[in-house]
Amino acid sequence: MTHVIRNFDALAEDALREDALALAEAGYAAIHVGDALARTLRVEGEELVVSTGGTETRRPLRGRRVFFVGIGKCALVAAESAERIFDDRLTGGIALDVANPSAIALKKIELALGTHPLPSDENAAATARVMRLLDSCAEGDLVVMLVSGGGSTLLAAPEAPMTVADERALFELLTDAGATIEELNTVRKHTSRARGGGLARAAFPAEVIAFIVSDVPGNDIEFISSGPTVRDDTTVADAQAVLARYAIEALPGTTLIETAKGTEYFERVTNILFLTNRDALAAMRDEAARRGYAAAIGDDAISGEASSEGRALAAALHDAPGKTVRLYAGETTVTLGDAHGNGGRNQELALGALAEVRPGELLLAFASDGRDNTDHAGAIADALTRSHADAHGLDAREYVAQHRSYDFFTTTGDALKTGYTGSNVSDIIITIKE
Questions:
Q1: pLDDT at 339 (0 to 100)
Q2: Domains plus CATH for the chain?
Q3: What pLDDT score does 250 carry?
Q4: What are the residues whose beta carbons fall under 8 Å from the beta carbon of 121, sequence distance 6 or more?
Q5: Which end of the chain is more exposed for a tag (fewer CB within 10 A), N or C?
Q6: CA nearest 37: which of 429, 423, 434?
Q7: What would the pLDDT profile of 67-112 be if each residue is shown by its tens digit?
Q8: Full-prediction pTM beyond 0.70?
């Protein structure tokens, strides 16, 4: 059997671990963007059939040019799927992603690679290619888009005199000040011609169907990748208010621009909230039930300090009856000191939970995109992890204090490794009691 978790067999040291890892793989399978597109789109004769929310809609294809545009961490795997779905009906397209770790070879869709999490001149050049393609679209054309996390950084198109370096400096100031993703993207939408409905405006008057993969708590499509296909309700004044809230003075090169407001740009745009962390949670709940557990979905917007959340989620399992699974998702925070090691939110959350989990209990935290700020996707906290740590003389509390979760789980061997997963819908947490 082929596993998404590459070290599944090594990690599955007992039945409880095997169950937890199987739940994680069910979650990964549910949110794989390429597979989800194949379930959603099909070509029947001269029509494109779109199946979402239990209903089907049809678009004519006869005599139309069809383009695919993918933006974000799931763009490449979506492009590969789109080429199979449309085959010779596809005219062309472009996929703007952060990496090509699987060495996917596209035939008709161009690949553009950018940087993340900070914008770069490479991002600006790639965005210009996307805008040129969309500008070339005519009224009879159909543009199928995939918008996913990472798109805000990738879609760099500042207006002179602002440069990408100016935007990068502004973004770093906001991040260091603790701005939320909604606040960050409010400012971002007003520093790029491609965000805040900018791609919809560029594609006008073509028809656009945008499939949106959410990595944003609350799933507001206006803020996912800064809403490149969505009419923006924020204004330059809102962006200025965010800067004022954090006492950030606009840097000398900062140029805030108004987003696309004309309703005509969006009349032929269909935005579909395509995948969220709830899809992963539901699939894991069903797999848990199949394995004989009483499973419940908890908070899908977990936040707070990662190690503290790990302790709290592990402690919440103590009073649960046997054969219980509780599922969570969201995005926690790791507050670094002046000196720190390597790690990520999920590994730190698992490390925080380690002192709290009891025999017969387990917590597994992992990144849906397969990268927990490192080449690990996440980690397991259970009695076996504790025994591995003891064997190496490791003190979990010391590693939490030093934010060295990557070093800890590399040594104990309890980290998940998946590589590129083809999705990005936030972090996911499983707690399970035998």
A1: 66
A2: 8-30+278-433 (3.40.1480.10), 33-275 (3.40.50.10180)
A3: 76
A4: 164
A5: N
A6: 423
A7: 999 999 999 999 999 999 999 999 999 999 998 767 788 999 999 9
A8: yes
**Tens of pLDDT along 197-254?**
999 999 999 999 999 999 998 999 999 999 999 999 999 999 999 999 999 987 888 9
Contacts of 16 (CB under 8 A, 6+ apart): 360, 362, 382, 432, 434
Q: Return the number of other C-beta atoms located less than 10 Å from residue 355's C-beta.
A: 16
Query: 405-412 and 345-353 are packed helices; what angle lies between their axes, rounded to 10 degrees?
Result: 70
Torsion sign over Cα 343, 349, 350, 356:
positive
At residue 31, what is the residue type? I
HSE, CB side, 13 Å, CA atoms: give it for residue 322.
Answer: 4
CA distance 267 to 247: 38
Q: How many residues does the chain have?
A: 434
Tokens 């000196």 locate to 339
- Judge contact between 149 and 225, C-beta under 8 A: yes
Q: Is the distance from CB of 432 to CB of 361 less than 8 angstroms?
A: yes
Taking the CB of residue 94, how many other CB atoms lie within 10 A of it?
22
- What is the rounded distance in angstroms from the CA atom of residue 335 to the CA atom of residue 333? 6
